[in-house]
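Changelog-adjacent note: as of this version, every example in the card shows the full chain rather than a window. The one below runs 417 residues end to end.
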Amino acid sequence: MKNRILLCTSISVLLLSSCLVGCGGNTSSSSEEIISSSEEIPSSITLESFNEPLDIHTDIQNTFLSISDPALQDKSIDGKSELSRPKGVTLSWEDSIECSSYSVMISENEDMSNSKRYFTSDKEIELYNLKIATTYYWKVIQSVKDGQVSKVGSFETIGEGPRNLYVDGVTNFRDMGGWMTSSGTRMNQGILYRGARLNNSYSTGFDKDSKIRDEYCVVEPEITEDGEKVFTDDLKIKTEIDLRDTNGNGYPGGGIPGSVDQAPTIGSVVDGVTYIAIPMDNSATIEDNKEEIKEFFEVLANKDNYPIYYHCNIGTNRTGMVSYLIGALCGMSQHDLELDYMFSNLGTIALPTPLSSNRKRTELIELTGEYEKNTYGASYVVNSFEGNNLIEKAENCLKDCGVSQETIDAVRKIMMD
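Full-length structure tokens:
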């Protein structure tokens, strides 16, 4: 089986360079020796060339994204299968000299500055979590002293959102950035992410009906060790915002100090990440969560908190509601906002648990209309406000929630500058 290298895996050069097997029995050198060698002579390594932008979406994702009405998606996309992860992008090369190990450099800069290094024993690698609408530069180096170095190649990625990501153990994970806006520019990528929970909301010892609220529950991370490396090392996420209600977030005492005797101060299940709980009502409506929306946007307005990951339980309703507000504020089209909302059905969002029997996928009416008596979706509410366009309507909706103009401007500046 070929050794696949994921872009989302962080590897220590110092640890690996000492154990690489070289060409012709040679031993490996330091990274500085490798990079500086053989740059001025013809290389034995020929990189694959690309004439078209490379797609990060799977076939089923592309089928969904191509429809004109997001409400009419294939009923087989039912939220019970993991279909939200991106497609890997494969780069390959040929080498006229037999070599058993290579390092591959990937950068967003033509001069290869700020590049990432990955290792493989094959003549190809598979990359995940690339940005969309981005030109990447790459070169391949034989991992031996005085090894051959290829010329710098390049490739582009597709421009269609969303930028969905592969973070092991977490479903429905994607970037709020990358979408085109009414101003003709894209929302910034790599700073604000949305998705599902990082830990089991209904962990061992959880008592949904207890007034004491799961005092003795055991916190059970669902994000894996590999997922944590992507979360912190590659995406460099600093802040986790948890929108789950306190009686369903998998933490002792609902994660609120003082809610039970000796309740601990709760932190993220990912080490080094700041945890902020903003418990929202399960209705996931704007009307029932005005104070929480105000608090949420005040966290987003502080650039020191970024990159940020926000989530509820499965990343559809509460997360979808605030995502609609962010996207509308920045100038996303109604169609793209609806696509982003419904894309969540590609994740494992409808799997039942002993304490939650929800088996349904999300429907567009939950965003755009009255889906229960006197219960209105975020799009319906925002579009009921005055304004010449969706941006102005979103602003007025946020102000009705108590969000200041200063906070609104700060969030939009962070997302659009």
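Structural remarks: The longest helix spans residues 317-330.
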